[in-house]
Structure formats: structure tokens, C-alpha cells
From TrEMBL:
It comes from the Bacteria. It comes from Streptomyces xiamenensis. One of its GO terms (molecular function) is oxidoreductase activity. InterPro entries: ADH-like_C, ADH-like_N, ER, GroES-like_sf, NAD(P)-bd_dom_sf, Zn-ADH-like_protein. SUPFAM superfamilies: GroES-like, NAD(P)-binding Rossmann-fold domains. This is Alcohol dehydrogenase zinc-binding domain protein. Residues 9-305 form the Enoyl reductase (ER) domain. Residues 1-21 are annotated as: Disordered. It holds the Pfam family ADH_N.
Length: 310
């Protein structure tokens, strides 16, 4: 089968080549992939894998062969998929627990953004508890996860505060997605917040934690800065309305059921109720261009590759 495989000799660390067809385990479906979505985390670490490896966390396609154990959907069913590798290929073996049924006829490129970006935003928001009437800060709001989080928090009834490095450039777009306020960083908050989804890490996480109200929760979702978090003395005192605040680490593949979430998100993307915020779209032959744009921080949203016929 054709696949994007790791090749350290290329600028992106990838090349379009051939790889052996995957052999599904009994609990896995074989999926014919039609579109994949790229994430900054995976493309920045793609060369950690040996040459010839097929990377890829999330993809959309159609079930070519159902799981032998009877779990999961039948052949011909459109699906969205997630996993640690194997997504950037014509065929993918997927655990049925990591596979969500998608509406027939929906845009596969849009659906491919659902599992990691949409799934991370949805499950991270669950960690905050009830959102109705709460003030929620989302840092890194122009990224793929951040844009889904803005929309989902608004659907949950939160007062959504989106943080971005350039509010003048991105404020209108974030408000269109559902942000009530757009600010330049947690330091610009005009009052405490009940919850934070931090997609940035480093000093922004520290400042955001300091702005939490009593019993507030910060979910540490992203670490794109690569900078450490240094908390000043007294950061964890509980006086002055700062009691019972918490920081929660996040891992999407933590064993929680994902298929129902993927299906719910896919149905809303297909219906136009959630915007996948695709910032770059092209054939998989243009993977080098997409990877360069992601690593260069030139994209605000998702990059999607569509797998055409051989």
C-alpha cells in the first residue's frame, strides 16, 4: 500500500512510498483511509520513529474489513479513527474502541480533525465539570484543539475567554466560533476564572493557575512552548479565596471510552454545528508543505491531507 513513511533524509522527515499492508488483530477493523489530519505534536517528533515507520494519529475513512471478534461497525461504514501510529496510509488497522461511526456522505477531510483535536477538547472540558454560567479560559485558542474547545465550551453554556498571541488578527474569528472575550494572555484577565484549558504550557500555565477562582480547575492540555513551569513561592496557598484549586494532567488515550465521543463530534461536524477550522488542505503528495507550515507556526487551525487514488 502507499503510505507516508518516516525518512530522515527529507526536510520533513517523511516521504510518500510503500509499506506492507497492516494485519489487523481480532479486535481491530481494517479501514481504507481517505483523509488524515496533522498535529503539531506528531510532526515535530516524527523522526523519533525508525525509518520506514508509518506515523499518523487521526484519520477518516471507510471500514474495508470489520473486526473478526464482531465488535465495531460493518464493512462500508464511514468512520473516524485514532491511534498512536499507522494513520498516514491507504489502509489502517484500528482498535474498534478507537473508531467512531461518521455520517454517510460527510466531508472526510473535516471528519479527520475530530479524534485528536475534537476529542481532546471535549474530554478536557469534561474534567472541568459543569460549564453553564462558568467563566472558562482557553489558551492557545487559535490552534486545532483550542478552536474546538472554544466552540464546545460555548455549547456547554460557559462564558468563554479565548487567549491568543494576536487578538487583533484573530479576535473576529474566535468570536465567530463562540468566544465572549479575546485576550492576549492570562495576565490580561479582568477577574478570576472557574476553569482553564491550557494548550500552551510554560509561563502561561503558571499565570493562568494564579487566576483560578476557589475550587477552579486547570487542565494542562498542551506544552507547545517547550518551557518549564516555575511556580513562585506561595502559588499553592489556599487563603484569600484560593482554596481547593487544582491542576489536572491530561492524556486522551487514558482508557475512557472514545468511540461515543468521536461519533457525537463527527455528527456535529457533518451537520455544520462544529467548525473543524481547516487552515490548510491538499493532497498527500504535498505533505512536505503542510509539515513545514505547521512547524513554522504559520497555521491557525488544522492541516488536512486527502488521499487520492493511486
Amino acid at each position: 500500500m502507499r503510505a507516508l513513511v518516516v525518512d530522515r533524509s527529507t526536510p520533513s522527515g517523511l516521504r510518500l512510498g510503500e509499506s506492507a499492508d497492516p494485519v489487523p488483530a481480532p479486535h481491530q477493523a481494517l479501514v481504507r483511509v481517505t483523509a488524515v489530519s496533522l498535529n503539531h505534536g506528531e510532526v515535530s517528533h516524527v523522526t523519533d520513529a525508525p525509518d520506514g515507520t508509518v506515523p499518523g494519529w487521526e484519520a477518516a475513512g471507510v471500514v474495508a474489513r470489520p473486526a473478526a471478534d464482531g465488535s465495531g461497525p460493518a464493512a462500508g461504514t464511514p468512520v473516524v479513527t485514532a491511534g498512536w501510529a499507522g494513520g498516514w496510509a491507504e489502509l489502517r488497522a484500528v482498535d474498534t474502541a478507537m473508531l467512531g461511526v461518521a455520517p454517510a456522505g460527510a466531508d472526510a477531510g473535516a471528519l479527520s480533525t475530530v479524534p485528536i483535536a475534537g476529542g481532546s477538547a471535549l474530554h478536557a472540558l469534561h474534567r472541568l465539570g459543569p460549564l453553564l454560567g462558568r467563566r472558562v479560559l482557553i489558551t492557545g485558542a487559535t490552534g486545532g484543539v483550542g478552536r474546538y474547545a472554544v466552540q464546545l465550551a460555548r455549547l456547554g453554556g460557559a462564558h468563554v475567554i479565548a487567549s491568543t498571541g494576536d487578538p487583533a488578527a484573530h479576535g473576529d474569528a474566535l468570536r465567530a466560533l463562540g468566544a465572549d472575550e479575546v485576550i492576549a494572555g492570562p495576565a490580561a484577565l479582568d477577574g478570576p476564572v472557574h476553569g482553564v484549558l491550557d494548550c500552551v504550557g510554560g509561563p502561561q500555565l503558571v499565570t493562568a493557575f494564579d487566576r483560578l477562582a476557589a475550587r477552579g480547575v486547570l487542565v494542562a492540555l498542551g506544552h507547545v512552548t517547550g518551557e518549564p513551569e516555575h511556580f513562585p513561592l506561595g502559588s499553592f496557598l489556599g487563603d484569600g479565596g484560593r482554596h481547593e484549586r487544582s491542576i489536572v494532567t491530561f492524556f486522551l488515550f487514558d482508557g475512557a471510552p472514545l468511540a461515543p465521543s468521536f461519533e457525537w463530534l463527527a455528527s456535529r461536524v457533518a451537520a455544520g454545528r462544529l467548525d473543524p477550522s481547516i487552515a490548510w488542505r491538499g493532497p498527500w503528495e504535498a505533505a512536505e508543505e503542510a509539515v513545514a507550515a505547521l512547524l513554522g507556526r504559520r497555521l491557525h487551525g488544522k492541516a488536512v491531507l486527502e488521499l487520492g487514488p493511486a
